[in-house]
Amino acid sequence: xxxxxxxxxxxxxxxxxxxxxxxxxxxxxxxxxxxxxxxxxxxxxxxxxxxxxxxxxxxxxxxxxxxxxxxxxxxxxxxxxxxxxxxxxxxxxxxxxxxxxxxxxxxxxxxxxxxxxxxxxxxxxxxxxxxxxxxxxxxxxxxxxxxxxxxxxxxxxxxxxxxxxxxxxxxxxxxxxxxxxxxxxxxxxxxxxxxxxxxxxxxxxxxxxxxxxxx
Length: 215
Prior knowledge:
The protein is 40% helix and 26% strand. By secondary structure, it is α/β, with parallel strands linked by helices. It has one domain (3-206). The strands form 2 sheets. It has a 5-stranded mixed sheet with strand order 1-2-3-7-9, sandwiched between helices. The N and C termini lie far apart (42 Å).
């Protein structure tokens, strides 16, 4: 059988694989998998981890949280960004900028984005907002290039160390159990249909399309 018989299918497969690996959906999924694996090193007796939590929200229909870590030291709400290049922005900017070579892409300030997540979750659980711990972590090769120093909860590494650095007891064991129960009973099923519904809600609210993350 001639070599060309196998060569073209192989080339098509490699081109499709390359396109997939460079897609925004795959990068977002890869970043979340990295954090899922890292969370397995947290003591399950102290930290209770939930991934891909989509909750009803009064203003936008739904809110989607990458990772929720419930502990007596607070409820950590983690937003992952799998970006490369240089990241420019400050704590209070509405948008940040990703620069790769001469290409610049603006995206929503993840601190502001995650603030909405923590407010929604605090309201749902009936927990004071100060007991929510917002964390933003860039899981790709991004370099933070900011004029002003960003808050300590914006990370490119060291997620577990940051979480474990919080030692003040903020919640009772009953509070932790109740939070886990409420989220489990309220969250929408973590599947593609839920994800599509959330994307439609975001598009309807902001009039823009969002990068889709794989459920």
